[in-house]
Design goal:
The protein is an alpha/beta fold. It is built from ten helices and 25 strands. The longest helix has 14 residues. It is globular, with a radius of gyration of 21 Å. The structure holds zinc ion (ZN).
Length: 400
């Protein structure tokens, strides 16, 4: 059904709101905007009824760090790749996402930014694109992980100012704060409304703190490609992980696929940072939503070969992970089942917290009057039954 312009009344479901769960609640949507969330039925002439079938009615999931899915990577630099990634993630509950790049040349990055601009107006049946997250290339070589070493370098103002001048779509940039030039880089980003995020870093506490004070207020995939406690001669130093814990106002994002971080670490992070400071991310590569086997991380022609098995992407020697194949429904499920958090806390970390971090909470992140009608309907196992983006149903599970 074409629901874009109509009035829609979602009935017969448990509505997840910022205040808790409204049993047997109602959500009214007009022209893509939520106009009412209520515990009693409002008569609305001409409304199309969407029956939630006794399931949960939740704000749509927001993935602030995702590289691909459905066999495509954003760095394939084709409009088709962008649209297919948006579609596959919408099937799993993502209604808004930030396409994420890998380290590459300035030309590659600019090509991705151009493709993003081309794809945006054509994206009518997938998760909405909210802006680009550039991951790299200004990283610590020692913490590069699956990022291609040939592109890793220190921040270069000539380069980054040029890249930023080419696009209004960059919303976040992940970099290592201890590098030469990383502090002026963060200040420049902040002045342009771009969020600096500390990533692939070997920083010790003092460097993280200086970075934080200059704009690095988010930690990219906490624990992955990031320093922990180190010893230099007899003395111990707190690394980036401990620093993210010590600095109360530091936000963190975690790959909650249940593999990158085991249950005790998920519990530890939740215990220290709480649901208001943690964003769940997929960090998914092209293998998300695809069968296991060989794959490629990054651009199909120039990227690194990886293996997908055991629900994760691995480097060919199987000694480290190379991105995830998670989808957002799995992140929510993992936090409930492995970390023991409540459904409402898990949803908050997948909706409102990432919206606040990325400064889009005025229109995304909760089922609140006046916000975009980004809504997912799922059962108690977080199986997605329907996904709505700005009032349009972009996915409906087949009836079984
Ligand atoms: Zn990533």
């Amino acid at each position: 059904m074409d629901t874009k312009q109509s009035l829609i009344k979602i009935v017969n479901g448990h509505v997840i709101t910022p205040d808790g769960i409204t049993r047997n609640g109602f959500v009214l949507v007009r022209e893509g905007i939520i106009i009412s969330v209520s515990d009693h039925e409002l008569e609305m002439e001409g409304a199309v009824i969407l029956d939630a079938g006794g399931k949960y009615i939740s704000p749509g999931f927001i993935d602030i760090h995702v590289h691909g899915g459905g066999g495509y990577d954003f760095m394939d630099n084709t409009v088709e790749a962008f649209l297919e990634i948006a579609k596959i993630h919408a099937r799993y509950g993502t209604t808004a996402l930030f396409p994420t790049t890998l380290t590459g040349s300035a030309e590659d990055i600019i090509k991705t930014l151009r493709t993003y601009d081309e794809a945006c107006p054509l994206n009518e049946s997938g998760s909405e694109f909210m802006g680009v997250h550039l991951e790299g290339p200004y990283f610590s070589m020692n913490q590069r992980g699956a990022q291609d070493p040939q592109w890793i370098r220190d921040p270069d103002p000539v380069e980054y100012e040029y890249i930023i001048s080419q696009s209004d779509s960059i919303k976040r940039w992940s970099a290592a704060p201890e590098l030469k030039g990383a502090i002026p880089f963060a200040r420049y980003l902040t002045s342009k409304g771009i969020l600096p995020s500390l990533a692939h870093t070997d920083a010790i506490y003092e460097e993280v703190l200086e970075g934080f004070e200059n704009g690095y207020t988010l930690a990219t995939h906490l624990y992955s490609a990031m320093s922990g406690v180190t010893r230099r001669n007899a003395y111990r130093f707190a690394g980036a992980v401990e620093s993210a814990f010590i600095i109360d106002d530091m936000d963190v994002e975690i790959i909650a696929d249940g593999i990158h971080l085991p249950a005790p670490l998920l519990k530890l992070i939740f215990k220290i940072k709480g649901p208001g400071k943690i964003a769940l991310i997929t960090d998914a590569m092209r293998g998300a939503g695809m069968p296991p086997g060989e794959s490629v991380i990054g651009n199909l022609q120039t990227g690194l070969k990886v293996i997908i098995e055991d629900g994760v992407s691995k480097m060919p020697d199987r000694k480290s992970f190379a991105g995830s194949v998670a989808t957002t429904d799995r992140l929510v499920r993992t936090m409930i089942q492995m970390a023991g958090v409540s459904l409402t806390d898990a949803i908050r970390m997948m909706t409102m917290t990432p919206a606040v971090i990325m400064k889009i909470a005025d229109r995304k992140g909760s089922l609140t009057k006046g916000k975009d009608a980004d809504i997912v309907i799922f059962d108690e196992y977080i199986n997605i039954h329907a996904t709505m983006v700005k009032g349009k149903i972009v996915y409906r599970a087949p009836v079984r």
